DNA sequence: TTTT
DNA sequence: TTTT
């Protein structure tokens, strides 16, 4: 049984449009890059900013919704858990990655639309914001129970459902 | 100003005794390795366990308390934020690390004492559990404002306060 | 759709054995009284304690587990949401109550067993602690979607499923 | 020492302009009414909405900021703890109230401005949103350590600092 | 009413 | 490496 609590709560903005892929079994996997910025005063009393970029992953139904409604610049609430992965890079080196596996999401009203999407076509408009979505409903049955494949620096191409290492 | 929320809540057990170091300015920095285990059913309906090992860092007064009261096996509640760091390894490669910067902690009653400590002297008994500590009080003034140096695979030896990269 | 986040995280001890009832439809509803104690320094610098007693409600499968495994004195992690209710007391007066509707629970290792139960028979031993349970799985299908009836000072006797006011 | 965790996280919208009062000692106390709405499917498969109205209280510096920047309609993230109070109403009856004592707040970008304020003059424009504020800094020293007086149905007029019942 |  |  589960022992321990591993919970993450984020509110931040997307640095790019989401990227959605599908497993061979048809399950959506959407990844976003989410910025949270904090401030502290350094020892000279100056305001110092620091931004963390979180790699957030949405599976299944939540992945479809995230891919459809979120855009670069969108403001979003995410709840999930931290997942650490280790893999061998293409250079043969061991690498580590950290992902936030989302199991709840809610769009907030800031900068929806976003636009000017990053690399790909992007630029589909976001729909109505301020809705909450979770991955816990019965039925489709992929929620945290069906979490993350290999992580960011790692490629996630061409993988079958069976490749999901968990 | 701050934009966004970056909050982590963990309940887990220490895999080893804490490691405490001090900056040249005398500030304590304590690191622990904290396990949280979750379960899911795989597609064959079998229970699959997965453990995440979180690297948690406590600064200042909180670092002193963590170093003094926590032990291998201790059960603890931690609240903090995620911090991602990038550094150059001794092999000249860019590496990444992820730390949880604690700003609150509370010992829970499970397996206090721990004992059988790892490598170093260790084995001092834990004191009374079930107390909550935070890093927000005025005075000493190191709290999240004085967060993490380079991360785990990275060495944290011999650094002066000025070396703290934030 | 949902707008907003309403999330509560509690770690505390039960003041009494749980009370479990069943709807006419057979759904379990378990209530516990959970203490959390905080400290502050008053203006004279003295430590002042204050205990909050949370009325936590578990529905469905989670209600069965809570009723079976928790006991007076048990230490438990609860995650849920706040629910405010208004009802007319037997004296004809409008009254208010506040409940925490649990959707996740995890027993912690403190004082399991409890024993010496309050008023009723009680005194069944708690089972193995340190397991996490949630109400989100498909199937039975009562989770937050099937939350709380009238609240504490209000009686919760003899109600049919149809009486659940939501 | 503290035993237990009592943590609340809310994202919602203000139903009215904030109300700010000052203790005789000059400490600001600001109250807001914050809505969070959730949905569930009832047994007929229809979407059922339910809104909780949280009474959130900000003290000290945080109270000043909340009073100055929040407005009816503002979207806000609040972190704090639950506080239950019992008092004797003007009708001589015992009454109960529940407040969320905020210790962190961050304005979100939705509907700032708000306008059309409720009862009082209101209608000052909100300032720049998306900033995070906490009550933990040293100095003034009112944070959760200086929480809530009597609660909503209860009057909070004319009270001196010494009247604060904690 | 719990717990430390 | 912990814990159940």
From TrEMBL, chains A, B, C, D:
> Compositionally biased, Low complexity: which spans?
143-155
Q: Motif Important for interaction with partner proteins located where?
A: 161-166
Which keywords describe this protein according to UniProt?
DNA damage, DNA recombination, DNA repair, DNA replication, DNA-binding
- Residue ranges for the region (Disordered) are 108-166
Q: What is a GO molecular function of this protein?
A: DNA binding
Q: Report the PROSITE patterns cross-referenced here.
A: SSB
User: What segments bear the compositional bias annotation Gly residues?
Assistant: 110-123
Quaternary structure (record): Homotetramer.
Question: What is the recorded function of this protein according to its Swiss-Prot or TrEMBL entry?
Answer: Plays an important role in DNA replication, recombination and repair. Binds to ssDNA and to an array of partner proteins to recruit them to their sites of action during DNA metabolism.
The family database entries (HAMAP family) matched by this protein are listed as: SSB
Q: State the PANTHER family in the record.
A: SINGLE-STRANDED DNA-BINDING PROTEIN
For this entry, the protein name equals Single-stranded DNA-binding protein
Q: Species name for this entry?
A: Pseudoxanthomonas japonensis
């Amino acid at each position: 049984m589960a022992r321990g609590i591993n919970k993450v709560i984020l509110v931040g903005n997307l640095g790019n449009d989401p990227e959605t892929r599908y497993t061979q079994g048809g399950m959506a996997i959407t990844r976003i890059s989410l910025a949270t910025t904090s401030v502290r005063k350094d020892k000279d009393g100056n305001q110092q900013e620091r931004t963390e970029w979180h790699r957030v992953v949405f599976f299944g139904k939540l992945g479809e919704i995230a891919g459809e409604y979120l855009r670069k610049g969108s403001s979003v609430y995410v709840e999930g858990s931290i997942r650490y992965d280790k893999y061998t890079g293409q250079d043969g080196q061991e690498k580590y990655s950290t992902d936030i596996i989302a199991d709840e999401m809610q769009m907030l009203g800031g900068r929806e639309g976003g636009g000017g999407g990053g690399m790909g076509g992007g630029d589909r408009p976001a729909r109505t914001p301020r809705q909450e979505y979770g991955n816990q409903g019965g039925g489709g049955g992929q929620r945290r129970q069906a979490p993350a494949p290999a992580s960011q620096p790692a490629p996630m191409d061409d993988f079958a459902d069976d490749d999901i290492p968990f």
